[in-house]
Each structure stands twice: as structure tokens, then as C-alpha cells.
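User: Design a sequence. Structure:
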């Protein structure tokens, strides 16, 4: 399975809580990203004067200049993807944030694994189709082309819905990791549907049927009972 290369991706974390910064830095570094930390908006802007990261994770409640103002300053100078990380969860905050052009919003307390998934989802959406993030994903007879949103089995295209493609891409982008139904619902469906994990179960079932119809016995999605699903790195024709 071809892995997405991350070592050249630089992420800026802006938060005045050292413990939060350490958790985020440790998780993203473990994922292979290069991480810089700023404890204030002013420190972040000084860093941005020297180089432009690939993504910024910004806390709202910063000392001095707040996170919203920092987002405005960032957006005035670049299209840098922004993920807001905050303890404030009011709908009003979310509306303002998205009007400022932020790409996603995670509320404290948060799961470091979910944060890493959201970071990768933002990067996949925002990076150039010609970047390393857009390389083909392969597993046995299966090929996924993110740039063209194309899935092949034995070099023959498979007819998937947009949702089925996104579901397969999220799973395949994290080979060997168990993703819960709640995580998949959030990452693939977002706010389009009420929080009902039955949608995930049904979509996975349909996706499996289409893949096995194209190649009988091929099953790259493993069910982890009571938790969620894992993309099988060494899936073969026999399942």
C-alpha cells in the first residue's frame, strides 16, 4: 500500500496552553509532520513572516490578540488552511469562524487521533492535485486515484457514489488503523446528516458489495466488532 508522504508538510500550532501544544505536537510528529508551536498570535505572525506553513491549528482564546483576529490576519495574507481548536463550542463561534474562511473546527477536549484525521482531511482537500498527497493508493488489485476520484480493481473502473468514494479514501488513507463509526460519520458525512452511525454501516456494506462484485473474494475492509472498521493493508483476492 502506498503511504501518503508527510515529512515535508509543516504545521503551525497556536495555543497558549503548553499541555495542549505538547499533545498536539506529539501526535502530529508521530504522524510524520513537521510541527512549530506559537504561544500567541503575535508569535505566530512573526513566524509567518519568515515562512508559510501548510496548515495552522489556532486556539480562539489567546492572550492579547484573539484567535479570530489572527485568522483574519492570516486570511488577509494567504489561503493557508486553518483548523480552529477551542473550548468554545457555541454555534455563534462556528458561524463566525467559517465566515472567516477556516477549514474545520475541533472542540476541546478532543481526541488526538481525530485531530490527526481532520488535519489529513484538510490537507487532502486543499493541497494541489499534483502534490505528494495526491499520489495513487494501491492495495493488491485495488487502485485509488484521489485527484481523479477514480477507483480501479484489476485496472477496471468501479462505479462508486461520491460518499462511497470518500469513505473508501478515508479508510485507505489510514491503513491498519481502526476508525470508529463516529469518526467516519464525522469525516465523510460531516454535518450533512444527523448523528446516526447506521449510515456508516449501510455505506460500508454497499461499498464491500461493489468491490467484491468486481473481484469475488476481495475484501479490504475489516470490521472491528463494536468499534468500527480497519483498512486491511494485505488484503488479497481471498479476503
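Assistant: Done.
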Amino acid at each position: 500500500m502506498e503511504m501518503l508522504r508527510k515529512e515535508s508538510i509543516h504545521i503551525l500550532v497556536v495555543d497558549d496552553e503548553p499541555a495542549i501544544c505538547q499533545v498536539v505536537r506529539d501526535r502530529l510528529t508521530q504522524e510524520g509532520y513537521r510541527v512549530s508551536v506559537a504561544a500567541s498570535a503575535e508569535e505566530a505572525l512573526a513566524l509567518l513572516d519568515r515562512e508559510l506553513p501548510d496548515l495552522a491549528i489556532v486556539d480562539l482564546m489567546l492572550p492579547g490578540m484573539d484567535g479570530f483576529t489572527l485568522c483574519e490576519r492570516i486570511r488577509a495574507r494567504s489561503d493557508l488552511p486553518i483548523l480552529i481548536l477551542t473550548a468554545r463550542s457555541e454555534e455563534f463561534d462556528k458561524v463566525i469562524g467559517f465566515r472567516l474562511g477556516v477549514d474545520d473546527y475541533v472542540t476541546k477536549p478532543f481526541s488526538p487521533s481525530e485531530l490527526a484525521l481532520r488535519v489529513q482531511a484538510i490537507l487532502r482537500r486543499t493541497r494541489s492535485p499534483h502534490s505528494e498527497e495526491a499520489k495513487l493508493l494501491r492495495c493488491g488489485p485495488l487502485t485509488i486515484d484521489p485527484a481523479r476520484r477514480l477507483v480501479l480493481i484489476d485496472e477496471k473502473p468501479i462505479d462508486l457514489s461520491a460518499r462511497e468514494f470518500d469513505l473508501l479514501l478515508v479508510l485507505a488513507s489510514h491503513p491498519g488503523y481502526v476508525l470508529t463509526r463516529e469518526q467516519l460519520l464525522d469525516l465523510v458525512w460531516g454535518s450533512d446528516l444527523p448523528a446516526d452511525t447506521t449510515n456508516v454501516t449501510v455505506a460500508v456494506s454497499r461499498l464491500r458489495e461493489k468491490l467484491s462484485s468486481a473481484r469475488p473474494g476481495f475484501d479490504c475492509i475489516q470490521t472491528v466488532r463494536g468499534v468500527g472498521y480497519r483498512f486491511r493493508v494485505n488484503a488479497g483476492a481471498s479476503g
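Residues 129-134 have pLDDT under 50 and may be disordered. Residues 44 and 169 are 33 Å apart (CA to CA).
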